[in-house]
Every structure is written in C-alpha cells, then in structure tokens.
Amino acid sequence: MSIFNQLMIGSGVCWTITYLLILRRGILDLTYGMPAAALFANLAWEIIYSFIHPHTMPQLAVDRIWLTFDFLLLLQYLRFGPSVRKVRINITFYLEFLLSFSVTFILILLVSDALHDDNGAYVAFGQNLMMSALFIAILRDRKSASGQSIYIALFKLAGTLLASVAFYTQTKTYSHSPLMQFLFVAILAYDVVYVFMLANQLKRQRIKVFGRF
After folding, report:
1. Which of 1, 169, 172, 191 is 20 to 30 Å from 100 at the Cα level?
2. Residue 173: inside a domain
3. Residue 153 and residue 191: Cα distance in Å, rounded?
C-alpha cells in the first residue's frame, strides 16, 4: 500500500472518530456539534464523490463511511437545530436547509468543474478551512462548549493534518500549488487556535479539559 493511501486511511480513521464523538456529544448536550454550513458542504461533497464522480478505493470506501455519518449528523441538526437557533416556525428552518444544501451542492459541482479538479481536492480543503473557522465561530456564538469536546478538536486537527501531509508530500500537482499550500497552513492554524480556545472555555465552565468526551 502506498504512503499516500496509508496517510489517507489514517486521516479517514481520525475523521470517523471525530464524527462519532460529535454525534455522541450532541446527543448528551441536546444540540448539534457540526456547524450547519460545514455539514451541508461535507454532505454535498461526499454525495458527489461517492456517486457522481466516484473516487477509487480506498478513498471511495472512506467517502461512503463519512457520508453515512454525515446523514446522522444531518438528522441531529434537523432535530435540534430549530430549538438551538430559536426558530419559532419550523417550516422556515427546513426550507432554509433545503435552499442552502441545494446551492452548496451545485456550487461544489461547478467549482470542481471550473478548476478541472476531478478529485475534488481543492474544494475539500477549501471547505475544510471554512469548517475550521466555523468551529471557532460556533464556540464564540454559544459562549459554551455545548456539543464540543477537546477530543473532537484534536481528532479533527489530526485528520486534516494527515490529509495535508499526504497531498503535500505524495502528489505532484497539489504539492506545487500555492493555493493548496496556503490551505494546508491556514487550516492547521485555525485548528490549533480552536483547540486552545476550547480548552480555555472548558476551564471557564469548570470542566476538566480531558475529562469530557
């Protein structure tokens, strides 16, 4: 097995653990842990690269595992989203979801086509940067660690870092791309900031940083 595939499998394992921990924490806290825009982008990307432009193995298997978990995260968002966002008319919340997901899905298709990126790597790392920023934003908005844990933050960081190392060291096209290099560094920076911000928030709430899964 190539080093690239080994790194990507490691990334897939870390992200799968991240998804499981988000689901668990959301159930315990009666909320959703994945930021909405990131969830829509992940779901759209995984549908596209599982069925419309399917990856080769083993990435295809990882994509479909992630897709399963993202559907569960979506159910969690649809269940707790209205109360968390304090929406009085639920139909408005669900219509907003349908519009946002549809626009995101079409946008990812068009951007990947415009960049001639059959693997969806540019979009994947681009939306990963958005996700890293949104985890910080959701922590600030809630002013609590609701739906989050330090283990979610650390496995999320490790999953993306392994993927970044794989693309930077084991590919020719992406390793020489200034855009990809910027995304690798920016995502890592946001993820490190998030880890420290979340740790501080947990301390303020008198919760043991590594005692909460």
Report:
1. 191
2. yes
3. 7
